[in-house]
Amino acid sequence: MVTISVPLILDMIAQEITMLFWNQAIEILRESIFAYAQACNGNLGAGILAVTFLARLALLPLGIRIARAAANQQRAMARLQPALDALRKTHNNDSKRLAEETSRLLAREGVSPFSFGGCVGSLAQIPVFVALYSSVRQAAALGGRFLWIRDLAKPDWPLAIAATIFTLFATATGGAAPSQNRALMLSISAAVTLAVLSKMAAGVGLYWALSSLFGTVQGWAVQRGSRSVAA
Q1: Which of 32, 98, 203, 210 has the CB geometry, 3.0–4.6 Å to 152, for a possible disulfide?
Q2: d(CA 154, CA 141)
Q3: Distance, CA of 130 to CA of 105 (rounded, Å)
Q4: CA atoms within 13 A on the CB side of 209
């Protein structure tokens, strides 16, 4: 006789419910793409852009808030860097004392070494991005013309290049990397983006390009806020 424990049964039920909700979320986004495409004379590319635009617009305030929190965290740590370096020199041979003094310094200055809220917010966005990407990929498989693109189900080099440029702008305005690493980071980002999009459906390229434009807007908003604070 085979016995199955109650926790195992509950775990199986939870997994089924999770998959059900996940599949429904992708289905809703995919059907939304088709609905907007139908409203645009059956243009699937327009449907992909419409749903991507609305989804990214809804997430933009949260993205800006998270990016600003990360920028504030970086500025605070940069301000304390001389004091942290001094502590490392003073307690170089006593790691426990160094950790205690570092924690005391950060607590006194009201700075947290980790941005918990930013991490939670970033993680909360990941399922939305993945579901949106999955729905776009499934919809793009149907193909169709859009602007100069002959088939949305096949790769398109001009679109891949344009999306790569938009990704470079988004990365550059993000400002997360130190200045000495920026050129390397931009080069790697461009090479990876172009290599990936050159093999993916053009419909996914539309999603990627528009998402990168929103990333650029987000980075610009954060930089503008940083300059206002500095002034």
Answers
A1: 203
A2: 8
A3: 39
A4: 24
